[in-house]
Amino acid sequence: MKKFTLLILVSALMCLNAGAQGLTAAFGASEAMVPYYEMGWDSQDEFNTWTYSSTSSSTWKLGNRDLPFSTIDSNSQSSMILNYASNQNEAATSPAIEILDNSQLEFYCYASGIYLVWGAWKLFAIVDGNSTLLIDQFQWAQDLGYEGPSWEKFTVDLAEFAGKSVKFSFVYQGDYGEDEAIDGFKIKQANTGDDATVNIKEGESVHFLDMSTGNVTSWNWTFEGGTPATSTEQNPVVTYNNAGSYSVTLIVGDGNTTATLTRDAYVNIEGEAPVANIGLPVGAYQSPWVYMFVPTNVPLTFTDASTGNPSQWAWTFQGTDIATSDEQNPTVTYTQEGNFGIRLEVFNDMGSNVFETVDGAIQAGGEQEIWNIAPEENSDLIMMEMGWYGNYAGTNWLGMGEFAEHFDAPLADATISKVNIYFGKTTAASTDADIVVSIVAAGDYGMPGEVLGSTSVKAGDLAYDPTTVNATEFVFDTPVSVQAGTEFFAMVGPFPNNNGDDIAILLCRRGEGEKCTGYHFVYDEDANYNYLETGTWYQNVDDPISMAIAPMLKYAEPTAISTVSCDKQAVSNTYFNIAGMASDKPFDGINIVVTRYSNGSRTVTKVMR
Prior knowledge:
By secondary structure, the protein is mainly β. The strands form 12 sheets. Strands 2, 4, 5, 8, 11 and 13 form a 6-stranded antiparallel sheet that branches. Strands 3, 6, 7, 9, 10 and 12 form a 6-stranded antiparallel sheet that branches. A 6-stranded antiparallel sheet has the order 37-36-39-34-42-43, with no helix packed on it.
C-alpha cells in the first residue's frame, strides 16, 4: 500500500513539472516598432531627397510654425511647411521605399481644421505609377470634429504594400486654404524580439500582446507608470501620461502553476512641451460676442486646462485685483467694468506655450448676450431637421411644445432685458401666431418651473436673412430679475404647425454624453392620440444640444463678495463670431470665419484673414 501511494505522488509531481516546463510568460506590443526610413526635414540636403511640384510660389519649404515640432521631438530643427495662397496644387513625393512585412507609416501634421474646407492635402501611395489614397486630411478632420491647431499623429498600416516599392506623396490642393506643417515621417517594422522596446509620447497608449506558451488560463499584468496600473485581460490597452521609462510584468497561470516575465524599461515615454489652455471659471458665461462674460466684485477661479503636464504657470490679468500669478488655478476679482484680455504661459522641461486672448475679449460687468455655445463651436450651428416630423426647436408634429435652454445661476443679481434667438428657418403660414419667450426659474428636479417674465413676437415677424443670420429680439416690457444663485431657463414656443409653417432655431449638436443644455416639453395624449394640455419636460440627453438662444443679461452690483469653485471645462483659443453673422464688434481687427446654413444644407462663406 505504501509503495502504491508513493507511485501516485511521484506521478503527480512529474505532471506538475511537465506543466511548469510547458508554461512560459512572454509578451510584446503593437507599438514596439523599429524605424527603417525616417524623414525630418531638418536640413536642405534632407529636404532635397524628396521631389516637389508646384503651381504657386507658396509651396512646400523648410520652416517652423507657431508651435514648432521640437515640442514633439526635441531634436527637430525645422518642418516641411506650406503657406496658403490662391490656386494651389502642391505635391511633395518621397523616393521609392521598399516596404517590409509588418510595416506602419507614422507622421505628424500641424493645421487648423476650420480652414481645411478651402485647402487640404491628400496622402497617396504610388506603386508602378498607380496611386492609392491613404488619407484625406479634410475628411479626417470632418470625421473627427477636429478644430486645432495642434500637432496630430497619423498612422497607416502598410500590410497591403509589403514587398513593394512605394513612393508616398502629399498633394495639397486649395484656394486660400490653410497653412500646413508636416514632420516626423517614419516607416517602421514591428519588433517582437527580446531587444524590443516601446517608444511613444505622453498621453499615448500601448496595445500589449500576450505571446505566452502553454495552457494559459489567467493573466496578471502590472504596468509601472501606466493607466490602468494592473489588468487581468489577455491583451490590455494601457495609457502613459508622464515621461519616463517603465517596466512591465506579466504573470500567467494554467490553474496549477505560474510563470513570470518582467521587462525593465520596456515602455519609454518622451515628454512634450505643454499646450496652454484656460478653463471657463464657474460663474463666467459664454457669449456670441466676447470670449467670456463675468461679473465684477466677485472672486473667480481661473483653471489651468493645459495639456502636456506643465510644471510652471505665468498668468497675466487685466482689470483684476492682481496683475500676475504663478499659481496653477488663481483666484482673481474684476474690480471694474470694462473689456480686458488674459494671458497664460505654461512651462515644463520640454518648453513652453502661450494662450492669449486679444485685449477686450473678456467683458467684466455691464450687459451682454449669453449662451451655452463655446467659441470653437460658433461656426458649427445647424438646424435639426426630423424629416416628415418637422424640426427640433421649431415647428414639429411630434407633440413637442415649448423648448427651453438652461443657464447656470449668475453670481450676482442680474436683469434680462430681452432674449435674442437665432433662427435658421422662419417660414410662417400662421403669420399671426404668437411665439412666446419666457424667463423661467429652475423648478423641481431641475426642470423649468416658475415663469419670471414673458414676451412674444408674431411668427410673421421672425428675423431671418439667408446672407446674414440676424437675431430675432424678444424684448420684455420690464426687465426680468434673476437673483444670484438662481438657475434659469429661456423658454420659447409653442410653434405653429399648420401646413406651410416651417420654423427652426439654430443649435449646436454634440456627441453622446457631452454637454446638453436643451430641454423640450412633450404633451400627453388621450386614447385617440389627441394631445392634452398636460405633459412632461425632458432634457435632450439622447441627442445633446445647445440652442442659439441668447438672453441679454445685465449685472447689478453685488452686496457681498462670495467665493466660488472652479470648473475644468476647456475652451479653445480660436475665436469666431456666431455662424454667418456680420459682426459689429470685431476682435481688435481679427477677422471672422462665417458659416451659413440654408434649408439644412451647410454652405460656407469665407472671410479673408
